[in-house]
Amino acid sequence: MSPRTLRLVAIAAVVLIAAAPFLLQPFTITLMNYIGVFALIALGLVLLTGIGGMVSFGQTAFMGIAAYSTAWVSAIMGYSPWAGLVLAIVLSGAVAAALGAITLKLQGHFLSISTVAWGIAIYFTFGNIEGLGRNSGIASIPPISVGTVALVDSNQIYYLIWAMLIGAMWLAHNMLDSRVGRAMRALRGGNSMVESLGVDAFRIRLATFVIAAILAGLSGWLYTHLGRFISPVEFDVTRGIEYLMMAMVGGAGYLAGAVVGSGLITLLKNAVQDYLPLIAPGSAGQLEIVVYSAIFILFLQRARNGIVPYIAALLPDVVHERPAEAEPLPRRTQPAPGKVLLEVEAAQKRFGGLAAVNNVSFEVMSGEILGLIGPNGAGKSTMFNLVTGAMPLSAGKVTFDGRDITRARQRKIAEAGVARTFQHVKLRPNMTLLDNVLLGTYARTKAGFFSGALGLDAAEEKRARYEAMRQLERVGLGDKPFELAGNLPLGNQRVLEIARALAADPVLLVLDEPAAGLRKQEKAALSALLKSLREEHLTILLVEHDMEFVMGLVDRIVVMEFGTKLCEGDPASVRADARVQEAYLGGVV
Amino acid sequence: MTADIAAILAVDGIATGAIYVLIALGFVLIFAVTRVIFVPFGDIAAFTALTVAALELKQVPGTVGLVAALAVLATLVEVVSLLRARSPGRIPKALVFYLVLPLAAAGAVWLTAGHALPMALRIVLSLVLILPVAPLLDRIVYRPIADASVLLLLTVSMALHFALVGLGLLFFGPEGVRTETLTDATFEFGSVFVPGQTVMIVGAALLFSALLYLFFEFTLTGKALHATAINRTGARLMGIRPERAGTIAYLLGSLLAGVSGILIAPVNTIFYDSGFLIGLKAFVGAIIGGLVSFPVTALGSVLVGLLESFASFQSSAYKEVIVFSILIPVLLWRSYTTVHSEEDTEE
Amino acid sequence: MALLAIEDFSVSYGKAEAVRSVSVEVEKGRIATVIGPNGAGKTSLLNAAIGLLPASGRVIYDGEDISRLDVEQRVEMGFCLVPERRELFGEMSVEDNLRLGAYSHRRAHAQNKRSLDEIYDRFPRLMERRRQAAGTLSGGERQMLALGRALMARPKLLMLDEPSLGLAPLITREILATLPSLCENGVSILLVEQNARAALETADFGYVMETGDIVRSGPADALIHDPMLITTYLGGHG
After folding, report:
1. pLDDT tens-digit profile of A245-276?
2. Which residues touch B305 (CB under 8 Å, ≥6 apart)?
3. Residue of B83, B238, B339 to mutate, testing the C interface (most C Cβ within 10 Å of its Cβ)
4. Taking CB atoms and an 8 Å cut-off, how many pairs form between chains A and C?
5. Do A190 and B334 touch (CB under 8 A)?
6. What homologous superfamily does CATH list for C27-54+69-78+156-238?
7. Is C100 on the interface with B (CB under 8 A)?
8. pLDDT tens digits, B197-221
9. Assembly ipTM
10. What's A336-417+506-589's CATH class?
11. Quick one: angle between helices A3-23 and A154-176, nearest 10?
């Protein structure tokens, strides 16, 4: 399927949705209204859960905040619901920003537990505020008016709901395909990789959280003026898990999952309410929640990714266009060769009582390839983590390009021009090769959430895509840019990490075992690539076990053993060193 | 607030806290062995209370039907998975464990329910009946996804909790119950009267904490459970089956939940859905213990009980808001003191 | 007949193949070794052989195809692994770690007591530290404990994954030196090592693994003089 057919399909869908009130029963339109409203909150959950990896059980709290805001403004104070919308969005966004600032440092399940806690706390608050009708809620809420037309009829508000939903989907779609959207998609799977590319992971998480809350707020606003009555029960944690279920059953990794899930669960609910009394008269109400929960559990057990991937597998693949040639992104000027670029002085790292790195000093000169070798467990990877800021030093000093970076954050070190790869490859297996490399351009580009969502970043995006494509070609992975990274053999995944690091236009490239898992010819190709990078005055620091590879490539070697520096020098002298032979062969040769 | 009122609130808080201790210990136990945050804990406690109440009224408790239904379902799941693994030889043993034993418990209660039973027997029958619930739920719900992330397991737990609330309404009806007090004795400490019930609750909490301690410290099975929690792969390489360790943990968890349900029923009116809030408050205690440490968990749970007691005196309408708001700083503190491994996070 | 025969074995992570159609055998009462650089797939091979990772191909142990059995069943049959990461129970005492090693025959109290004494005889250092938490031990002591814990299961076949990892050469030797005496007691061993020379000096038969394939195999004393191996392991012509 080409992008053009895709656009045609999208237009056809919009036309169908617009025609629905003329074709369908009023009752069906009412259902469609609720599907649209729930799809909005589910869309937020897709961004939060499926994309950003943060599971929230408390999303109804934001829906509730918005609902109570607009109900108070319109039903109690007597202003327009549109004023209610402003308050709803501002308040849900502000509460999310405050809660997020406190709780988003939490990891994984701790974060989710906190969402239950504040979800319940906010729910109980609604039921206890005198001015908001306590547990009986607020009734006679006015409808939304557009001009002089009050949207009382379900056919009328239908257009508002679906226009908002389609708009939100379009913005979200653009955003995910932009610079920050890629960072958002990369959040799952840990912070260290994204931070090593200069991404402020916390900021991205917070923004995602606020966006999801605003979508919940929008949903709450529409919900309030659709049903025209609200009470606390509609925003308790039970409902929260229902919306989460919509997102996850539909497919939490896909924007369309929100609509599919909302549609499916809403229709199912309707069917259950129709048929359960026939099967189990008298206890239908109780069984309803049991049925949903059972379905949800089954989905989580059997189809964690939801329905959308199954549908997508039946459709023809979307044909991507290879990035076209564009003006290259601006490049850094490399420092003149032969200067001290990185200086490590008496670095120390202790884990409890164990010294993983003990009093190690060395220098990396600009334009050289320095090999760091040593037996397993010698502390080489720890050393790398200290240099790149992934771990704080216990003692000692690190200077990069004349700047003290001992206490600098990983992200700042990345911005200063240090790019790295990881011993345990850290890629996003569900993103394409091109998107993985595009992540590398993050620190060189600027587009933010708004320009991404509104599509104002097209020029920069074009340049970044071209740059990523160039780096993919350079490392020899240019033939299938739209393959998923997880489908590559392990050796090529390492090479892909190098392309990502190169896309950051680094001054110093730090490679952790780049040749592990490569075959002979691939090793030779990698060696040639690294040599050509040296020609361009790029400085390289690498850890490697394959001695043949190291000896034929590097200018100098530092040998580590048991956390200390054993010796350093050119390859020939290191190879001849008796201590090195002892460390490697475990005895006299 | 006078000193007398403070003392009364403190006694009250310690009693509530002691109930939370029992449930929180169960949370820690099950999380440590299986990585499951077993949200439905409170539900099981509430179901036990409802069971005792039904037996008092000489009615067949809804738990009988619930256990029977779960047993049949678990048996089906187990038999299918054994057939798929092509090990039909293990079916008879599975039938005994998942079908015969739970049905025997259900049958015993069903047969005796109509008679006037002494209180001790009612309690024992309720515990026997509640014991299989958590292991059966484990088999049906968690076992098929034992390798999933903590987060996914938590999501499943939440869904399971709502399923149980629905089943609770179906099997027990909407009425609240309060059971006979276990003892009418009161003790006087200085100017404060302490009901015997409170002494029993605290005593039970101490007793079960001690038993858990002895189990983990002095039996090889206890150590095997602990080992599974510390290092699952290491345990498997010693021939310790994580599933079996999980089943034992769930059995113990059921027992703890049951005991707490029996102790709370004479003090609080319990509805089919009362379990969630009780469980969640106990969970705050478990989080204070980092879901790892038994002693800190016990202390934390008592703290939650005290906080709740004093909060309800200050502002009863907002007591839940206060109790759950405290969870956020606790989580933050825990999150900073726990070292997270990157490899644990889900791709 | 071989006690252990791994036949046509492949291990994949997603679409990436870590081990490609490898066959390895261990004769009864002998030590076989698989050597090779980091990332060659050695650890995947052992983890799949014990059943921790899914694999295609067959594992024949003592004449029986055990490919479908789970890890615990294999362990109960006397087929044990000392993993690369040791996987000790860090917060538990040395003695508790050892006692859990005998979990697969936990009813044989008298025999377990004897095994425990034997382990303490073999590694007096563990005796000295038996009340200490396993997590506080030094690297060498950890390796001893991991080995001792596996021996408590009274294995017939023991697989060791990089016993030299992070250890000084002297300690590596000390640990490798205990292996032949285990063989005399009827234990067969499959040793995976990066420290090629030490491994080949200890073993009877060797396999060389590179990027998922066995590229060479033969009697250990022949491999040790193979010029190609010397090149790979020290680079150049050292």
Report:
1. 999 999 999 999 999 999 999 998 888 888 87
2. B13, B14, B15, B16, B17, B18, B19, B20, B281
3. B238
4. 95
5. no
6. P-loop containing nucleotide triphosphate hydrolases (3.40.50.300)
7. yes
8. 899 999 999 999 889 889 988 899 9
9. 0.92
10. alpha beta
11. 160
